[in-house]
Design goal:
The protein is α+β, with helices and mostly antiparallel strands. 14% of the residues lie in helices and 30% in strands. It contains eight helices and 43 strands. Strand 14 and strand 15 form a beta hairpin. Helix 5 runs antiparallel to helix 6. It starts with 5 loop residues before the first helix and ends with a strand.
């Protein structure tokens, strides 16, 4: 590209003028400009310029002093920018586009909100959400830096304090931590600024950065809507329920307050997020959310995303988005697929928040509608969002793979599997921000999936085609491509809804809750048959009429005890795997050995998935009123007496907190899924109204 000239600027400027000083809009997009091509003397003559388009060039940085004091709109999409701090020279900027800059991260997007106080639109979206997240982070960081300052200076004499102040900034940057690793560049940047201010002032409290509050999230009103009666899942038999039947008329158990026992503490609501909205509509309170899973903990030194393998994926198109190391990324695993990756809190609308953030095990994946989101529970920030138009995601599952880099070093990184209506499994490298594998094997929608707890590459998928398939996804090659192999096919007589490897022998047996009951398969790979039928069906009461009842909740509480739901109205059953299996004999059906029954909602609605927190001995389940039922079953299981006839009441019921959305209180919703982090620090509830609810357990 030839250097910029006065003639070129006049040709591309608006309004047409023979004087650069009168141009208000300038389009320099698509000229393959390098950073050094931006002539400061020439551009500095554009004294009235309000809009500048530098998209689709090769810019690696913006000059520190372009001399454009009245610039209100700047487009820099699809460049190679690595730093956003030069943007501070445009304090009047109201609209900014940085899409397609693969070296910018979610931290850079948060920085932008500090650097540009007048910014209203960022990458085509309202900037208020990103600004709100940055404000929350800044408040917490300010508090933590001030606390570190007091501790740092407390043990020093006045003479030592004067000398040590120069070292405080370095100490604060190295020791003050908050939020996920993906935000570390932003948090360190802010910690350094706050620390330098403290040192300069010599005070014990840092001033929070002045940031315009911007418009609040939702102010429009919405008329109350009846609960839709559409299918909750695609299936062979339509579920037809009237709106009246979707309201439970029986009273709930009046149990509230804290959990009992050594882990007694109060669960406090933190965030209520709309992050799965159709077409990113803030008025979407109908998208159904189905499944979530906490990300496995990262090993030290492995949280490096795409850099862990040292290369970008072949065939992937980096399309910069609002935030994140990969910003928005489109990949094309099939001709019909056009998924969109977005990193950062772009499409999320924070409805309300209270409480304080917490500790570890804080990253969770959620799915529903056409999107899969990865959320940091501590900050409420959506770190990544993966969208496939026309898809409806029903299930997600994590695994941690060991891969070998080009230099021969072993690395551990997490892969997220997601599946749903189209019957395809997508393997998502969340940290790098792209879909690195697509598995086709089912003829109908996939209801659920799970990884083997003992083989990190073994994946079970269960479909409405009445088949469960065991895959070996393998490890990706240097082009980030998976080549999955088909290991087993398990035939079912009804739609499988929940999968559960048997805890004491996950390599040998698989449990599945199905529309027609609870079944078990032999999944040992040393057996010759590659297609197998159900080995035994479990029934939950005496008499043959008890078989064939839907089981839509299934999970192990510990190595022996199974929690299941759906076979009996208004109860959750706890039964012993070992005692049941020992009494099996050669019969195709066997009655489970019931240890206890737990009282649950008397609703006739189905597909409320239960979960367990084995480390804490908890069983969790949502209901049709938006409540979360929590059971501490350790005291119950410790009893040696026969099970009581009456179901046991829950330890606690979390009532729906009724957050505000669109200026109206969401008074009722259905909680489809409840999952707790392994340490029971966070609890996630997914609803039928496009709300992800996050609670945090306070200190005992």
């Amino acid at each position: 590209m030839a250097p910029l000239s006065t003639r070129l600027l006049m040709q591309r400027g608006r309004p047409k003028s023979d004087r650069l000083g009168k141009i208000r809009s300038l389009d320099l997009s698509g000229l393959n400009l390098l950073s050094e091509d931006l002539d400061l003397n020439l551009l500095g003559r554009l004294k009235q310029l309000q809009e500048l388009d530098l998209s689709d060039n090769q810019l690696e940085t913006l000059p520190a002093d372009l001399g454009l004091p009245h610039l209100h709109v700047l487009h820099c999409a699809n460049n190679q920018l690595r730093d956003v701090t030069p943007l501070c020279q445009f304090p009047q900027l109201e609209e900014l586009s940085l899409e397609g800059n693969p070296f910018l991260t979610v931290s850079d997007s948060l920085k932008v909100t500090f650097l540009l106080p007048e910014l209203r639109k960022f990458n085509g979206k309202d900037a208020s959400t990103t600004r709100s997240k940055a404000e929350n982070l800044n408040r917490e960081l300010t508090t933590r830096v001030a606390t570190h300052w007091r501790k740092f200076m407390a043990a020093l004499s006045p003479e030592e304090q004067a000398k040590a102040q120069a070292n405080f900034v370095k100490s604060a940057v190295g020791n003050v931590r908050y939020g996920p690793v993906l935000l570390s560049k932003f948090t360190q940047w802010r910690v350094q600024m706050i620390s330098e201010e403290l040192v300069a002032s010599g005070r014990t409290h840092a001033r929070e950065a002045d940031m315009p509050e911007g418009p609040h999230k939702a102010t429009a009103t919405q008329e109350p809507r009846a609960r839709p009666v559409a299918l909750r899942r695609p299936g062979d038999t339509p579920l037809s329920l009237s709106p009246q039947k979707r309201v439970c008329t029986s009273p709930l158990v009046p149990v509230e307050g804290s959990l009992v026992g050594s882990d007694s503490s109060q669960l406090e609501p933190l965030y209520f997020l709309q992050c799965h909205s159709k077409n990113n509509s803030p008025s979407d309170l109908k998208t159904q959310l189905w499944a979530c899973a906490f990300e496995p903990a990262w090993d030290e030194g492995t949280h490096s995303g795409a850099g862990a393998l040292g290369m970008a994926p072949a065939g992937a198109t980096w399309k910069g988005g609002e935030q994140g190391g990969t910003e928005s990324l489109k990949c094309h695993p099939g001709q019909e697929e056009r998924p969109l990756w977005t990193t950062g809190n772009v499409f999320t609308r924070l409805i309300s928040q209270t409480g304080q953030a917490g500790a570890t095990s804080q990253t969770v994946a959620t799915c529903g509608g056409e999107a899969v989101c990865v959320i940091d529970c501590q900050t409420g920030i959506v770190l990544h969002k993966y969208k496939v138009p026309g898809e409806e995601f029903f299930s997600v599952a994590w695994t941690t793979l060991t891969v070998v880099t080009q230099t021969g070093h072993k690395k551990r990184w997490n892969v997220l599997a997601a599946a749903g209506l189209r019957g395809l499994v997508r393997l998502l490298h969340v940290q790098a921000g792209f879909c690195c594998g697509l598995i086709r094997g089912h003829k109908k929608a996939i209801a659920t999936l799970c990884f083997s707890p003992t083989h990190e590459t073994h994946l079970f998928t269960a479909s409405y085609d009445k088949r469960i398939i065991l895959w070996d996804i393998g490890t990706p090659n240097q082009d980030y491509e998976f080549q999955a192999s088909h290991l087993l096919t398990l035939d079912t007589t009804s739609t499988p809804l929940r999968l559960c490897p048997v805890a004491p022998c996950p390599d040998a047996y698989l449990l599945a809750g199905c529309e027609g009951g609870c079944c078990c398969w032999d999944v040992r790979l040393d057996q010759p048959q590659k297609r197998r039928v159900c080995e035994v069906e479990f029934i939950f009461s005496e008499g043959s009429e008890a078989s064939g009842q839907r089981v839509d909740g299934l999970a192990f509480v510990n190595e022996d005890v199974v929690a299941s739901k759906g076979s009996s109205l208004g109860t959750i059953c706890l039964w012993s795997w070992s005692q049941t299996w020992q009494g099996r004999g050669s019969q195709p059906t066997v009655a489970v050995v019931v240890l206890a029954r737990l009282q649950w909602s008397p609703t006739i609605l189905a597909y409320f998935s239960l979960s367990t927190c084995p480390d804490k001995g908890l069983v969790l389940c949502g209901d049709e009123q938006g409540s979360v039922w929590i059971y501490d079953v350790r005291p119950l299981l410790a009893q040696r007496s026969p099970p009581q006839a009456a179901p046991q009441a829950p330890t606690q019921i979390l009532k729906w907190p009724q957050p505000q959305a669109l200026g109206q209180t969401v008074t009722k919703t259905m909680v489809n899924t409840v999952v707790a982090s392994p340490t029971f620090t966070y609890l996630i509830a997914l609803t039928d109204s496009n709300i992800v609810a996050i609670w945090r357990r306070g200190e005992p």
